[in-house]
Amino acid sequence: MTSLIDLQHAIARHSVAGFNQTAVPRMALARADSVSGGSESVYEAWLLVVAQGRVRMQLGDEPFELSAERYALTSVDLPLTGEVCEASTQQPFLALALSLEPVMLASVLLDMGEQLLDLPPSAGMALGVLGTDLLDPLTRLVRLLSQPVDIGMLAPMIEREILYRLLLGEPGAMLRQLALSDSRLSKISNAISHIRRHYAQPLRIEVLAKAVGMSLSSLHRHFQAVTGMSPLQYQKRLRLQEARRQLTARQQSAAGIAFAVGYESPSQFSREYKRMFGVAPSRDALELRQSVLQPRRGPMTD
After folding, report:
1. pTM of this prediction?
2. In whole angstroms, what separates CA 212 from the centre of its chain?
């Protein structure tokens, strides 16, 4: 019987420092030999499995932790903050991420003989504990990296098995919505994609609602249920995450970046930036650049 140790050994064998895509389609492996500071990113629909160590994440105002043998499942693009909080050279943080493919989900559902009916809204994230029914196919998927000639034939079969197990579990209702092109979740996903493409532009909620085929009240209610925030709060988080990225990468004033990400008032940008990151943008930019220039003490920068 496959154990968590088997998954740990498989990931350790095929992973390097950082978060890296693999030869298996849609699968990435993560490894960290030391703890890391918080980083912000927008995560697409995926399954994240922690095999060793611990990561602390935050969605909106809701913090949570994933430790060994736990997983997180998202069904829409969500802005998350994450930091590895348990890792060492002897026991590195090890994780696996698998992007979820709606077309494959729909195919698995049809093969299960289920009708593709719309469902009530659910949160865009679910947390769970790994059982042997998931551990086994996940370990076999990682082990395919030792047999690249088998990836094309076996990876899709193993991936379908993983989706099947997830559909049978507690997050099944959320995944069923992801598979439906006309479901409420799919419409919220389209709204999120629109906001991401036009995050620096003024957001007109009535235009967004019309574009995704929802009423104003329905859009607000379902968007809140899925993401834990309103469309405007979602856009603000995207703007601030992008601003922080630009502050690290570019020698430009905080005011210039504020305008670039869509703010009309630098003072408002500074207030909201400090509220989210705990420090003024100009000071944060200096600290971020200094940390980038610091010499590495190991396989990863702290």
Report:
1. 0.68
2. 23
